[in-house]
Amino acid sequence: MTIPTSSIEQVIPGQGSMAQPATAKKARRQRFRFVSNKKAAVGLIILGVYLLIAVIGPWVAPYDPGARGNQLVQPPSADHWMGTTHLGQDVFSQLLVGTRSVIFVGFFAGIVATILSVLIGVTAGYVGGKTDEGLSALSNVFLVIPALPLIIIITSTLESAEDWLIALVIGLTSWSWNARVLRAQTLSLRRRDFVEAARATGERTWRVIVFELLPNLTAVIASGFVGTVIFAVLSEITLAFIGVTSATTWNWGTILFWAQGQQALAQNAWWWFVPAGLAIALLGTALSLINFGIDEFVSPRLRSMGKTKLKTASGKTVRMRIGFTPVLSNSPEPLTHASVTPVMKEVAP
Amino acid sequence: MKYFLQRLAFYLFTAWAAITLNFFIPRMIPGDPVQALITKYQGQLSSQAIDSLYVLFGLDKDANIWQEYVDYWGQLLRGDLGLSFTFFPTPVSEILASSLPWTLLLVGITTVISFFLGTSLGILAGWRRGSWADGLLPVTTFLSSVPYFWLGIIAIYLLTGPDSFFPSSGGFDSGLVPAWDQYFIPSAIQHSLLPALTILISSVSGWILSMRNMMVTVASEDYITVAHAKGLTDRRVAMSYAARNALLPNVSGFALSLGFIVGGTLLVEIVFSYPGVGFQLFQALGASDYPLMQGVFLIITISVLVANLLADIAYLLLDPRTRKEG
Amino acid sequence: MSEPVLEIRNLNVGYGLGDQAVRAVRDVNLTLHRGEVLGLAGESGSGKSTLAYGLTRLLPPPGVITGGQVIYHPADGPAYDVLGLSDRELREFRWNETAIVFQGAMNSLNPVHKISTQLTDVLRAHEPTMSEHSRNARAREMLKLVGIAADRMDAYPHQLSGGMRQRVMIGMALILQPQVVIMDEPTTALDVVMQRQILRQLIELRERLGFSVIFITHDLSLLVEFSNKIAIMYGGRIVEEAPASAIYRDSLHPYSAGLLGSFPALRGPRRELTGIPGSPPDLKGMPTGCSFHPRCPKAFDPCASNIPVLGRPDTPDGSTRSVACWLHPTAQPVGL
Question: Which GO molecular function entries does the Swiss-Prot or TrEMBL record give (chain C) (predicted)?
Answer without folding.
Answer: ATP binding; ATP hydrolysis activity
